[in-house]
From TrEMBL:
Gene3D superfamilies: Helix-hairpin-Helix base-excision DNA repair enzymes (C-terminal) (1.10.1670.10), Hypothetical protein, domain 2 (1.10.340.30). Belongs to the Nth/MutY family. Its cofactor is [4Fe-4S] cluster. Its EC number is 3.2.2.31. Keywords: DNA damage, DNA repair, Glycosidase, Hydrolase, Iron, Iron-sulfur, Metal-binding. Pfam families: HHH (PF00633), HhH-GPD (PF00730). This is Adenine DNA glycosylase. SMART domains: ENDO3c. It comes from Nocardia rhizosphaerihabitans. Residues 37-187 form the HhH-GPD domain. It comes from the Bacteria. It is an enzyme of class 3 (hydrolase). The keyword DNA damage applies. It catalyses: Hydrolyzes free adenine bases from 7,8-dihydro-8-oxoguanine:adenine mismatched double-stranded DNA, leaving an apurinic site.
Length: 292
């Protein structure tokens, strides 16, 4: 079974969310920032931060001129802050080696710091209108259900080829189809409660098969009490500080498990998100030299 591109794109034309990075004035750099922010983070949390970043860093060289600490502070509580550091590193490369312009070629995009297979193709497609498969969890879910009649399994090397085979041949339609496919997974063909009654597709292999359950139960990621939460608490202290702080400030930020706190602190240092000064204080990346 295939996917009715006409029905999907008509639905998208009528119901697509009015997202700022979809506006004609959004540059490839703006779209790249949105794609990095949206990884594992809901639109409602991303949009206000993205708007601040576009105003503050409209081009890569503007971000490159800022410190790592400034970027980490501006990232706020979006989660997975290594994304912010990698984006800062990417901005420096774009400013220095690409004339302050995000490249359109997928292979060149893949050579940039922090840009993986999904992000490279998303930028090529959504910023430059190219006919390339863009596969995120939403797209994988729609293709698995509508085409193959099952819940999605683990990511596979087949995903790109299977999605590319569904793309309309005309390049402009292919880019719009990719956006529509992703939107369908985000709004209608959701993981937990798919709204099949409002699905625009006239045929779906999963529905015809009786909506079979996933062969492997989906694991629910917890956050409370995890190392991720501990890392976040420690980072909060440093983001709120005007300079390096003593370790006791960090100790008070996570008292439930000293061993876990030490592990979280060490991982932040290893990831380059924070640094330790010569006199034993802790600071955000790039701010350790403030102590003396």
């Amino acid at each position: 079974m295939s996917i009715d591109a006409e029905a999907l794109m008509d639905w998208f034309a009528d119901t697509a969310r009015d997202l700022p990075w979809r506006k004609p004035e959004a540059t490839a750099w703006h779209i790249l920032m949105s794609e990095i922010m949206l990884q594992q983070t809901p639109v409602v949390r991303v949009e206000p931060i993205w708007r601040e970043w576009v105003a503050r860093w409209p081009v890569p060289s503007a971000m490159a001129a800022s410190s790592q600490a400034e970027v980490l502070r501006a990232w706020g509580k979006l989660g997975y802050p290594r994304r912010a550091l990698r984006l800062h590193e990417c901005a420096r490369v774009l400013a220095a080696e690409h004339g302050d312009v995000v490249p359109a070629d997928v292979d060149v995009l893949l050579s940039l710091p922090g840009i993986g297979a999904y992000t490279a193709r998303a930028v090529a497609c959504f910023a430059y209108g190219q006919r390339v498969p863009v596969v995120d969890t939403n797209v994988r879910r729609v293709v698995a259900r509508a085409v193959h009649g099952r819940e999605p399994g683990n990511p596979s090397s087949r995903d790109l080829a299977e999605t590319e085979a569904l793309l309309p041949v005309p390049v402009p339609r292919a880019a719009k189809f990719s956006a529509a496919l992703m939107e369908l997974g985000a709004l209608v063909c959701t993981a937990r409660n798919p709204d099949c009654a409002h699905c625009p597709l006239p045929a779906c292999a999963w529905v015809e098969a009786g909506k079979p359950a996933a062969e492997v139960a989906r694991k629910v990621q917890k956050y409370e009490g995890t190392d991720r939460q501990a890392r976040g608490r420690l980072l909060d202290v440093l983001r709120d500080a005007s300079g390096p702080v003593e370790q006791v400030r960090l100790d008070l930020a996570w008292t439930r498990d000293p061993g876990q706190r030490a592990r979280a602190l060490d991982s932040l240092l290893v990831d380059g998100l924070i640094e330790q000064t010569e006199d034993g204080l802790f600071a955000l990346a790039g701010e350790g030299g403030a102590a003396g």
